[in-house]
Specification:
The chain is an alpha+beta fold and about 80 residues long. It is built from one helix and two strands. It has a domain of about 40 residues: Erythroid Transcription Factor GATA-1, subunit A (Erythroid Transcription Factor GATA-1, Chain A, 2-Layer Sandwich), CATH 3.30.50. Helices cover about 20% and strands about 10% of the residues. The chain has a two-stranded antiparallel ribbon. The mean pLDDT is about 75. It binds zinc ion. The site of zinc ion has 8 residues, from loops.
């Protein structure tokens, strides 16, 4: 009845491309790209800088892992 004909509008490229986290452009994700998943060294540097600054202002909202859960005085 309804026979769908597949129309391959997008041919699979031999090299896998990903979206560059730095600039959003297509980046070749292969061994040839030393900056993968970034497209260039510049984007990688920018992202590393962002992560570094992000790490310095991490909010200390989470309680310490060694803090006892609950009030020990309630445990009789
Ligand atoms: Zn980029």
């Amino acid at each position: 009845m309804a026979q769908r004909t597949r129309t391959p509008h997008t041919a699979t490229p031999p090299a896998r491309t990903v979206t560059c986290p730095g600039c959003g452009a297509d980046s070749v994700y292969s061994a040839a790209n030393a900056y993968r998943p970034f497209c260039s060294a510049r984007c990688k540097q920018v992202d590393l800088g962002a992560w570094a600054s992000e790490d310095f202002r991490v909010p200390a909202e989470a309680p310490p892992a060694d803090a006892p859960h609950g009030d020990p005085r309630l445990q009789h």
